[in-house]
Amino acid sequence: MLTAIFTDLHANREAVSACLAHAEQRGAQRHAFLGDLVGYGADPAWVVDTVMAHARDGAIVVMGNHDAAVIDDPGKNMNPNARAVVEWTRSRLNAGQLAFLASLPLTVESGDCLFVHASAAEPRRWEYITGTVEAVRSMHATRQRLTFCGHVHQPALYNLSLTGKISSFVPAGDSSIPLSTQRRWLVIPGSAGQPRDGNPAACYALYDDVTHDLTFLRVPYDVDAAAGKILAAGLPQQLGRRLEAGL
Questions:
Q1: Which of 6, 63, 95, 168 could tie 104 with a disulfide, CB 3.0–4.6 Å?
Q2: In whole angstroms, how far apart are CA 152 and each of 9, 34, 215, 245?
Q3: Residue ranges of domains in the chain
Q4: Class in CATH terms, 2-245
Q5: Tens-place pLDDT, residues 67-95
Q6: Helices 237-245 and 80-92, interaxial angle, to 10°?
Q7: pTM of the entire structure?
Q8: Which helix (H) or strand (E) holds 60?
Q9: Which part of the chain is the Calcineurin-like phosphoesterase domain (predicted)?
Q10: Which of 46, 41, 50 is nearest to 10 (CA)?
């Protein structure tokens, strides 16, 4: 089965629409959404409704820290801009949409895959996987051979050999990699809604569980429209500029 994997959608309708259309063209048979459906962007209701529709069709969906903040409390570690958007987002979602976010699990296991927003080691701590130490800790926390996660907004791939040797890879552009069944893997597709690697094009990944091929993909979208909506909504201007710069 070919699974399209999206993370950190961040209420960006233009980017999410472009990624979903691209995945359909590539023949995706299933979808997985790795959290942070909301936050930063100006279309939280549309994104939540879209993911809800895919969930009804069998998509995997897990909770992200921005989703948790909207239904609970932002927490002391969330920056002021993100906090402001959390409050704004909460006022834009209806009871059904909020209930959907509240119902999301922190992790989902499917076959030899684990889906989580941040680290599998302690999912609710929202640890960023920025290097091999965090990647190994996450991989050791699950029996699954493949872990798919987000949270860091930059594409990355880590693998752990049978002897415990860890290595990492940063994909550039569209990259296809065969995932050896003799290794364990941690996959970060990058952010669909707010990339932060200097490239404003949206990110997602495709995984074929028959051939074990993983493909990182970049999808151009109407960044100006998404940034303009942020400004029109009265949200922090910096968030629109970040989209334009991919930072």
A1: 63
A2: 12, 12, 18, 16
A3: 2-245
A4: alpha beta
A5: 999 998 766 667 788 888 898 999 999 99
A6: 100
A7: 0.94
A8: strand 60-61
A9: 1-208
A10: 41
